[in-house]
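Continuing the batch. This is chain 6 of the set; chains 1 through 5 are on the previous pages. Same settings as before, nothing changed between runs. Recording input and output for traceability.
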Amino acid sequence: MTDTYKPPVTAEEREYEMRAHIGSIWSGGRLFIGMYTFLIASLVFAYFYLRSSNNGQLWRPHHVTAPLPYGWAIAICMVLMSFLAIYGQSRLRRGGVSDWQVAGWTGVGAGLLALFFQCWELTRLGFFPGSSGYASTFTGFAVINIISIVASTYWLETTLARALRLRSTQGGINPELSDTPAARSLRADIAAMTYFQGFMVIAVALLFTMFYLM
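Output for chain 6:
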């Protein structure tokens, strides 16, 4: 007969597993930012390489540019989403669960609005994707921006959905602030998401300057 006895899990072992789980969320969030940085870096390299070489004077013939009003609308909505996520987390840390929820869902709305403007802008361009170096890199930027908006909005929405599920399963007053494993995992996820949202503000400022102002 095989020995099927399993010793009981101690409180120290549970705490160790919880810390490892939170650490994996922390590491995963930073790795995701690193991968996203390489994606942005490839776009920045292509932009400045084609701009500096300007072969056949085809980098930006006739100084074509993307519609600036759409660029402002997209950038404002993306920055608004990021700042709402950051503000919501700061309120959550102070016990303002309702403030975090309102800021979070408003941020999701801003992200969806940014996605709409970005998709609609592609139907209002005054150039074709392969007509110039600028047109080619802008098309790549638009695709990357759509991916960025979808990823950041989805991450924000899933943290809010997890909080709603936590409330339905755990109950009580402000279960998001409790010391249960599910609540601690949720707060770690929110922290990683907020860190990425802050990085998004830097990326938005850089890419907006490159493609709309330079």
